[in-house]
Amino acid sequence: MSGLDFDVSHLLAGGLVLVSFMLLYQTRIYALLNVYAAQAFVLSLAVVWQAFVQDKPHLYATAAVAFLFKAALIPYALHRAIDRLGLRREVENVVGIGATMLAGLACVALAIVVMLRIENEADALAREDLAFALAVILLGLLMMVVRRNVVSMVIGFMSLENGLILAAAGAKGMPLVVEFAVAFSVVVALVVIYVFLFRLQDRFGGVDVGVLEDFQGSRR
Amino acid sequence: MTALPAVQAILALPLGAAAALAFLPDYRLSARLNVAASFATLAVACSLFVLPGFATPYLLIDDLNVVFVALNAFVGFTTSVFSASYIGHELETGRLTPRNLRFYHAMCQFLAFAMNLALTANNIGLMWAALEIATLTTVAMVGLYQTREAIEAAWKYFILASVAIALALFGTILIFMAARPALGEGGMIWTLLLRRAGDFDPALLDLAFVFLMLGYGAKVGLVPLHAWLPDAHAEGPTPISAVLSGLLLNVALYIVLRFKLVIDANGRAFAPGPLLATLGLLSLLFAAFMLYRRRDVKRLFAFSSIEHMGLIVFAFGIGGPLANFAGLLHMTMHSLTKSAIFFTVGHIAQAKGSQSIADIRGLTVSQPWLGWTLLAGVFAIAGLPPMGVFTSEFLVVSSTFARAPVLALILVFGLLVAFGALLMHAQNMAFGDPGGPEIRSRASPAPIVAHLSLVLLAGIYPPPPVVAWFEHVAAMLH
Fold this sequence. Notes:
The complex is a heterodimer of chains A (220) and B (478). Chain A is mainly α and 220 residues long. Chain A has one domain. Chain A contains 8 helices and no strands. The longest helix of chain A is centred in the N-terminal third of the chain and has 28 residues, at 58-85. Chain B has 3 domains: 1-120; 146-269, no CATH class; 271-478, no CATH class. Chain B has 19 helices and 2 strands. Chain B has a two-stranded antiparallel sheet. In chain B, a hairpin with a 4-residue loop joins strand 1 (54-55) and strand 2. Chain B is globular.
């Protein structure tokens, strides 16, 4: 693999991590949606580059799914859900933004430390791609933990899933990547439909997980 | 002739039945078709015991998964019989509409298809996808009643399960990365993975197993990722609680065992046993203490499922022929007993119109056979002799005493704590003065009696062919 291939892959995967960080400090829900769409766009670029470098045409399909579905359709649907259901526009954090960013840094450091331990039997590019992917996954998890708002939890999950697609696309010769991408899109679609269909708003008087806590399953 | 046509049949039967049920408007007919399809699946699944195993790139039958498939088919069948007598009442009280029921029956068969696919898959990607489908199906069923609690339970289950699915997929990708230098594009076929495991990079395998354990372990219901389990069991229709506890947890466990075999075969990766044993023991202790303050009867038995899955995972973590044998036996006994208990509890909740333990009193007086079968079930699940659960728990404890006496002490302590909690609750529900209004249950006792007598038989005289089969599988598992 030539130096340029390597550098562009790194640039795009690194860009994905950077956008994941941007997700962490958004305080407005529309801005959060836009940043998520940007992340999905960067992901589709990264997958297109992998398809080109590995000469695997089926990865173009994965990239197309990522672009159409996650950069366009899902943000649009959530946008409408927020308008229609009159959901709150602010994003409430359980933890302050400064602390969240520090925790995010720790996640990335963890991902790198864990991945660099691995011997160079797998080639360097695959290994470092995995490190970036793991960082995106951990940042997505972090976002799900620090946000109380249902829509931003969903976005946290979707950004976690973007990390998975990056890992699957970077794993050279992995079969079923397109199928995985589609399978996950189905899960994501169901989550979004769930938000629509059951109008968590109507049922709980606000799309905020905190409101649900009077149910407190574990005490019953 | 290999078992391939039989496997195709146990996949095609439930899938075809699901398609047919989706269009059948009459719920009585649907319930019968559901029973018939489950019975046909069971009959075909039994033929797997005599047909020789095989491995194609996508499907696999060996001695390990035959046990799981057969158990699955059996409990699936008895659950469909129970469900037929359960849903009529739900319709009368208006908790479900005929449209709900059409969806419910189709989903029952679809779930059976997904679980059979997960159990017979030879490709770890396919295995992952099948478990994902099974999970999403149960999410839809948990929310079936559309009450506030049901929707929240389904949402919680959905989010936790999705994260678990994602982590498991990352683990699967890492396994593929580890296998790629040795296997190339064949790095997702389980039989190849097992054969060439020695050539894989141990550091990648370590990391992969951590993610697989987090992902699939959450599905098994291991602490600290168990939070979805009690809610999902309590708020869905009772047949689904029985299937969740009796079957879906086993399917996730089966996948964990498959990956444990690959990691074990590598030799240089870290030993998965201690991780499994620790998580199992933690789950057991945690659930044992949580049993005391339950107020909802289905939640009570859901926590008991966490406890028993913990014990089973612990047994496989300890390893060795005896502990593995005990783990397999306990898994079978737990599936049979726990689904029998959920059948009983389903009828009790319908008769009393409430799932709250405080509302359920004096069952042995007002509904003698429900009261006594509940007691029998609780005796069995608490591990009293002569039931089969006692045999398997005894084997786990004695094999642990031989290997790690300190762990055995903790284990016995946890079991005793759980025992006390279960007996306390059972006594309150079975005896005393039956207060409050209730209706006479018209439930069919057949599935409950069938399960409990099998458990009793295993405790008194375990059939030698079954013992031989389990011993063989236990040796396979190291």
